[in-house]
Amino acid sequence: MSLSLIGLITILIIVALLISGKVTPIVAMVIPPILGALLAGYSFTEIGGFFGNGVSSVIQVAIMFIFAIIFFGIMQDVGLFDPLINKMVAFSRGSIITVSVGTVLVAAIAHLDGSGASTFLITIPALLPVYKRLHMNPYLLLLLVGGSASIMNMIPWAGPLGRTATVLEADVTELWQPLIPIQIIGMVLMLGLAVLLGIREKRRIIRKYGSLEVAAALEATAAAPDASASVQTGQANGLARPGLLWVNACLAIAVVGVLVAGIIPAGLAFMIGVSIALPLNFFKVNDQLERLRAHAPNALTMASIILAAGLFLGILNGTGMLTAIANDAVTILPVSIAPYLHIIVGLLGVPFDLILSTDAYYFALLPVVDQIASGFGVASLSTAYAMVIGNIVGTFVSPLSPALWLALGLAGLEMGRHIRYSLFWIWGISMVLVVIALFIGII
Predict the structure, then answer these.
(1) Which of 46, 62, 91, 198 could bond 303 through an S-S bridge, CB–CB 3.0 to 4.6 Å?
(2) What percent of the chain has pLDDT over 90?
(3) Cα distance between the two ends of the chain
(4) Mean pLDDT of 422-433
């Protein structure tokens, strides 16, 4: 059995297990890749090496997970987000559609630094309580934030365009300029999607509770059974520190600012933040330990999932499965469709995101598709734009995205349910953008 076939089957099994919800993500990302590596002829000693390489690539992310979740959990306990929640609810007047549209705009602004992790760290803790207060589906929050951030991810200082520029040996800023109209159109589509899904969500809430007023009057904690039970508002659990509101706000802004600026590693930034937040808000050691015990289960669960994902990625990269999939994917296609290969791959960009890492897609698949398409007179830039536009929208619906796991951990959500909820809409926007790019001449 070829290496690419083993890799493809392994990834499909993992995605199927995640979507099914029959097993935990740890099981899904540990057993199948190990069996795949053994089937490909690798020994346990070699698999151990892949594990070491994979874990070393995600250990910083795992550390960030632990302390970021604890930090934002403490901030929520002490009521930092309560004024924002109340203001946003008052501004929206309980309008589900207004909140949905606002989510897209906030996420777009938050992603100006090009970092998916910081975008989720800024948006999820602040907006999730609003969704819970209004009894909105938290998976809608993740869809809107992820979709908006993905479209903004076309900026030159984000990863995908930098990788594309490296492959084409082109200037990344010049590569980005023709994509600006696509970004604008994409954001308009996301706003339209926010309105559409907001209307659908409003109908769901009315159908479930009878009216928006009745839903708003209920306790917020009863609305989100998927969220961690440890996440409650400060008023509800008596931990609120209104007298320290601005101090805590300055601390949170400082931590996120250091994160965005990249002065120190993100994990260290949140570690320092937790170390300051605990004694600042809770003077007794027992109270500090209680806050750690309240948020540690969710933090450690997500960190363990990230380490399992490190094994998964380590095996797929170490064995060469991802590269083999990328190379073989285009060789099996009929010759008659070769001149349109770049468009076909672009239209399938989101499904490719489910089975290929960002590096594999841009560093392995893009050069192969470009080589084949260029033989039929297709410009390399056209190939690159088709593949970037088609793939980038699905960045935060892929289990291969570390930042998405962070978002899931912050929101207390499941990968499989997120894929089921978001894939149809995200893939639809991706294909529409590819078609629009064809009509306006970018592709």
Answers:
(1) 62
(2) 30
(3) 37
(4) 95
